[in-house]
Structures are given as C-alpha cells and as structure tokens.
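> example.struct
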C-alpha cells in the first residue's frame, strides 16, 4: 500500500490523540486536570487583580510577577480548553492554523518565561545589592523594556519553529500524541528532520543555560549581601522573597531541562506527555500559590481586598 504524502498545501489538519480515553481511570484523571486548570486560572487571575488594585504592589517585582501570571494563563488556556472540549465531544480534529497557533503560543510563552525568570533574578539582585540606586536603575521604562524583550525573545524562537515545522512534508498517520508541539509533529514527518532537531537542541541549551547562569550569578551575589546584613528582619524578608522566586525557578527549569535538553533519540511519547502536563497545567497552578503563600505583602493585600468585598 502506498504511503499518503501531505505537504503544506494539501495538509488541512491533524488528529489530537489527547491525554484521555473514556475509561473510568481517565475520567478521574480528566477531573483532576480540570481542577488543576481551574486553580491555575483562578490563582493567576486573582494575583493579577491584586497587583493592579493594590498600590503597595506597584513595584518592579510585582510588575514582573504579573507578566509571569499572564504567561501562565496563556500557556494553560492554549492547551487545556481544547483538550477538554475534544474529550467531552469526542471530536479530536484540529485545523492546520489551530495547530500552528498552539505551537506558536506554547513556544512563545515557554521561551519568554525562561527569559523573564532571569530578569526577575536580576531585579532581586538590584533590590538587595544596590538598594539606593534601585529606584533609578529599575524604573518603569527599564522594567517595560525587560518584559518586552522577554516576550520578543520567545516570539522570535516561536516564529522560526512554526515556519520550519510546517515546511516539512507529512505522510501516513496525522495523529499527534497529545497536543500540537514541535517534537510531536516532527515524529510524523516523512522528511529527514535530524538537522532541525539538532538545531532545536542547541537553541534550547542556550536559551535555558544562559538565563540559568544569570539566575545563579544574581542569587550568589544576593546570598553574599544577605549574609552581611546586620538586621535579622532584613535578612528574613530578603530570603523569603528570594526563596519564592527560587521555588518557581526550580519548578520551571526542572521540567524544561528534562523536556528540552534531551536528544531526539532519547525522547518517548510517554515522556513528552508527562512533561507537557507538568509545564502546561501544574506549573501555572503552583506559581501563584508559591508567591501568595510565602509572601506577606501578597497575603496582606489579599486580606484587604477580601475585607473590601465584605468577606
């Protein structure tokens, strides 16, 4: 039987296998995913409302945190609603443009978050190590530029990935493992994608390790400055704020390094599926919880807001 060849002009869409079947076990798993999704949307939306409403949170650290919440909302809302709709309706088709949009948004947000975490570490370094110059150096113009640069860095990577991935011909099965992302589509191509896979691997190494180096260097200086602080209260406040960010960094980079710093030959559909759940559902859920539960300013602002609502 001859193999069906699809190029970019004749290809109309893909079939999303999804994460769930209709077994009892998967129905329970689907309920957990919806619960995590609801928690992520509620937590990040509430955090954005707090940062917008409370003047005490109108400082660079919370401006960057609001950008992180927008990224988390974009990531989880790009994937989970489509996945849930397919599971409930039984219709698992996604158009070519829908698939390209998923890849574009997921890669954009993934890359932007990588850069933003480095920016947030640099912000903490400036606040702790250069407190007198901090308001001048980290003014709103500088903060807006750093946030925009993070988004543009992720977007540039995404445009290249989408352009190259959809230039390959596809043949045979058009069933994507879970949702549209670059590794899942490359496995369906009947062209030799090894050179592009090696390029992705090299780019991921640079995009992960360069910001991680900035984060490590920033916090090494912060730790040195904290040790020299005479005030115990000042030490505690600095460590609490930095530990929240470090927890988010560990959560993000743990999944990202496991997912993207593997050679293509070492990847498996099951491994890709597990890491996809981690960074599209679990990370957006945990990030606002980490910052709200470990941050006195956020919890205080939340109590004030609830008080105004009569709760």
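> example.seq
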């Amino acid at each position: 039987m001859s193999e069906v060849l699809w190029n970019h002009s004749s290809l109309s869409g893909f079939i999303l296998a999804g994460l769930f079947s209709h077994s009892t076990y998967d129905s329970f798993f689907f309920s957990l995913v919806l619960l995590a999704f609801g928690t992520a949307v509620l937590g990040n939306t509430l955090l954005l409302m707090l940062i917008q409403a409370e003047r005490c949170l109108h400082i660079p650290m919370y401006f960057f945190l609001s950008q992180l919440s927008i990224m988390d909302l974009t990531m989880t809302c790009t994937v989970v609603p489509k996945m849930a709709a397919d599971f409930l309706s039984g219709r698992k088709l996604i158009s070519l443009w829908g698939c390209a949009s998923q890849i574009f948004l997921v890669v954009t947000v993934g890359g932007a978050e990588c850069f933003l975490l480095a920016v947030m570490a640099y912000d903490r370094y400036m606040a702790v190590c250069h407190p007198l110059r901090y308001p001048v150096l980290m003014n709103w113009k500088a903060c807006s530029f750093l946030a925009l640069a993070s988004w543009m860095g992720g977007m540039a990577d995404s445009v290249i990935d989408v352009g190259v991935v959809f230039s390959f011909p596809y043949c045979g099965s058009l069933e994507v493992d879970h949702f549209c992302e670059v590794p899942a589509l490359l496995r369906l191509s009947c062209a030799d994608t090894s050179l592009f896979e090696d390029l992705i691997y090299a780019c991921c190494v640079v995009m992960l390790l360069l910001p991680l180096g900035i984060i490590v260097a920033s916090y090494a200086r912060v730790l040195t400055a904290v040790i020299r602080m005479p005030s115990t209260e000042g030490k505690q406040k600095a460590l609490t704020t930095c530990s929240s960010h470090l927890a988010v960094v560990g959560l993000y980079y743990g999944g990202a390094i496991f997912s993207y710093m593997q050679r293509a030959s070492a990847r498996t559909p099951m491994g890709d599926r597990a890491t996809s759940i981690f960074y599209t559902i679990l990370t957006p859920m945990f990030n606002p919880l980490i910052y709200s539960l470990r941050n006195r300013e956020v919890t205080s602002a939340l109590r004030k807001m609830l008080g105004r609502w009569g709760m």
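> remarks
The longest strand covers residues 13-16.
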